[in-house]
Amino acid sequence: MKVIVTRWVWGLALLGAVATAQATDTQLRHALGRALDAPRPATDRFAQQVWFQDYVGRLRPFVDSPQRRRRLTRMVLAEAQRAKVAPGLVFAVIEVESDFNRFALSYAGARGLMQVMPFWQEKIGRPEDNLFHSRTNLRYGCTILNHYLDREDGDILNALAAYNGSSGRTVYPEKIYRAYRQRWREE
Fold first, then answer.
1. What is the value of pTM for the model shown?
2. What is the DSSP letter of 133?
3. Among 39, 66, 82, 138, which residue carries the largest CB count within 10 Å?
4. 99-126 pLDDT, tens per residue?
5. What angle do CA 126, 128, 134 make, to 5 degrees?
């Protein structure tokens, strides 16, 4: 039987945990499918407005257009809340992964703001999803990030390494965590 190991579980395969990786892959595939169809969560309007104004200001060095800053902040807040991920961590991933370019395309084929790999579209049966569409990309990225945070018991560095497919290496997760601590973490 030939086992195809995805970029997401590459580090686990190296550790000889192919069975665990396949189970994890299945769980994540189901979580993505549910997340793409889930309704928006209810929020506290006052807390949301305070957070919103703060993060719109933090985006100023990265996004020129005030309208685009507001739109992106709304989307990140909604998708991060839906996936139960810290919005600041999502902003840090976006900063490092795509530099806030929704049309970013990596040499490995990862797409959009959160650099989501297109194989996820096929795995969940939604090949028509456009990963360059910001809300779609954020929905996928936040759900995947939440999955890895859960799998790694909240260990941000290990979760970020798994998200990027660089498990066992620290350069990538440390770069995102540094951005998170310096610019995006909520006080």
1. 0.77
2. S
3. 138
4. 999 999 999 999 999 999 999 898 888 9
5. 95
